[in-house]
Write a structure and sequence with these properties.
This protein is an alpha/beta fold. 33% of the residues lie in helices and 20% in strands. The chain is built from 13 helices and 20 strands. It has an 8-stranded mixed sheet, with helices on both faces. Helix 8 links the parallel strand 10 and strand 11. The radius of gyration is 24 Å and the shape is elongated. Its EC number is 3.4.11.1, 3.4.11.10. Presumably involved in the processing and regular turnover of intracellular proteins. Catalyzes the removal of unsubstituted N-terminal amino acids from various peptides.
């Protein structure tokens, strides 16, 4: 990942490859800091009409050799017809688009901003827009580390350098979540995922603790949900607990992530076309891991425990069957109706384990249902829960993080669809309202030992976790790292 630094020289003196400026207005005009040389500003004003520059947020236009600037070229990026249109979201997306359009070499960004939230959005967007996944590419020689300079109009009281350092920490962990999701499934499986978490936690500046339940411990511990899902694979399941505990009494949030490293559907096998992106079925666990590491590195004043529920859903000779009945960690028996509805089973065991630690809140993150994608489309994740205040806090955090979400209900009338004649509960309801019945199933596991509800929210990120289209704004093609920003916003707000 490139370094992110605060600009200390004037725009005219900066001598790197690409300078990024914003454009806005119905008659596009360049917007930059006050130290843009007059001759450079005049040149831009003269050429903008002829270039038919767009002010649509994220649209870019490249202009080479602008007078009075040492930068090789200028990239103009749209900020909307009115300055400030779209707030931090526009700045984040514009910075990402501009860095991507800049190509190779150093970049300096001079976009208008009013406060530290704006500046953070610019920094995060710039680093997110630079992201590429090259782990599986043949080596092409050493690459020089890229430098991204952000010019700020904020005075020292606003601590712009610290704002950018925080932005870099967040962006680095979002990039790690993306890397995990983008990794080929023959290389990322429960044990290798576990090892990556152990390595990252050891190398992190944050105070982190990692504990691992292997397949033997899961079997002995009564984790029938995740054991059943993973029993068809030659690569057995794991639950990894990753925790950050600052000193003193703090709010304690448990994060539970679905980590199906590849989902064939099991014996209820998916059509081949539906498996194309199933390496991304562990995006929830990736988001949880990245969030806990970032929270520790940022030293947030809240205790966070992540439970990564890792399994591979395969149709092996010992695979789970429709009609099986398993006993979960909390003692409930569950009838399996569809082996392709496996995510809720690993989450339910993870939530049961999380409940045993007595957290103030449980949040689960999962690429759980296609029904949620049908309901909300590919760019919005659904939020459900047993506590309206918590559900609202999550959607508000998502809004601040520029990760679109929408609250969904858990209608009590649909609960009867989970009744089973052979077990305490069936793991799947009717076809209609599939995202909601999945939430209703999970709700049964957000309880303490006395059966009292623990405040819980469920983030169904099936749509926005993996971008099958082209890169747009600060989001690349492939894994997006969605939910990391939302979770960190929520944790920071609690702290």
């Amino acid at each position: 990942m490139p370094s992110l630094i605060l600009g200390s020289r004037s725009l005219a003196a900066w001598s790197g490859r690409t300078l990024v400026l914003g454009v806005t207005g119905s008659q596009p005009t360049a917007v930059a800091s006050a130290d843009l040389p007059k001759s450079a500003a005049a040149h831009l004003e003269a050429v903008l009409p002829a270039l038919e520059v767009s002010t649509t947020v994220g649209a870019t236009t490249t202009i080479p050799a602008v007078p009075a600037l040492k930068a090789t070229k200028v990239v103009l990026v749209g900020l909307g017809e009115e300055q400030g249109e779209g707030g931090t979201d526009s700045l984040r997306r514009a910075a990402g688009s501009a860095v991507r359009a800049a190509g190779q070499g150093s970049v300096a960004i001079a976009l208008p901003h009013d406060d530290d939230a704006d500046l953070a959005a610019i920094g995060e967007g710039a680093l997110a827009g630079d992201y590429t996944f090259t782990a599986h590419k043949s080596a092409t020689g050493e690459q020089e580390e890229r430098e991204i300079t952000v010019f700020s109009s904020l005075d020292r009281k606003a601590a712009p350098k610290e704002v950018l350092e925080t932005a870099a920490t967040i962006a680095r962990n979002v990039a790690w979540a993306r890397d995990l999701v983008n990794t080929a499934p023959n290389l990322l499986y429960p044990q290798s995922f576990t090892e990556q978490v152990q390595q990252v936690a050891k190398a992190s500046s944050g105070k982190l603790k990692v504990e691992v339940l292997d397949d033997k411990a899961l079997l002995e511990g009564g984790f029938g949900g995740i054991v059943g899902v993973g029993q068809g694979s030659s690569r057995p399941p794991r639950i990894v607990t990753l925790s950050y505990s600052p000193r003193g009494k703090k709010p304690h949030v448990a994060l539970v992530g679905k980590g199906i490293t590849f989902d064939t559907g099991g014996v209820c096998i998916k059509p081949s076309a539906s498996m194309a992106t199933m390496k991304s079925d562990m995006a929830g666990a990736a988001a949880v891991a990245a969030t806990v590491v970032a929270a520790a590195e940022l030293e947030l004043d809240v205790a966070v425990t992540g439970y990564l529920c890792l399994a591979e859903n395969m149709p092996g000779g010992n695979a789970q069957r429709p009609g099986d009945v398993v006993t979960m960690r909390n003692g409930m028996t569950v009838e399996i109706l569809d082996t392709d509805a496996e995510g809720r089973m690993v989450l339910a065991d993870g939530m049961s384990l999380a409940a045993e630690s007595g957290p103030d809140q449980i949040l689960d993150v999962a690429t759980l249902t296609g029904a949620c994608v049908v309901a909300l489309g590919p760019h919005i994740f659904g939020v459900m829960g047993n506590d309206e205040e918590l559900r609202t806090a999550i959607t508000e955090a998502a809004d601040r993080a520029d990760e679109p979400s929408w609250p969904l209900p858990l209608p009590t009338a649909l609960r009867a669809g989970l009744d089973s004649p052979t077990a305490d509960i069936a793991h799947k309801g009717d076809r209609m309202g599939g995202a909601l019945t999945a939430g209703l199933f999970l709700q049964e596991f957000a309880k303490d030992a006395d059966g009292e509800l623990i405040p819980w929210a469920h983030l169904d990120i099936a749509g926005p976790s993996f971008n099958e289209g082209g890169a747009t704004g600060h989001l690349p093609k492939g894994a997006t790292g969605v939910a990391v920003g939302t979770l960190l916003e929520h944790l920071a707000n609690l702290a």
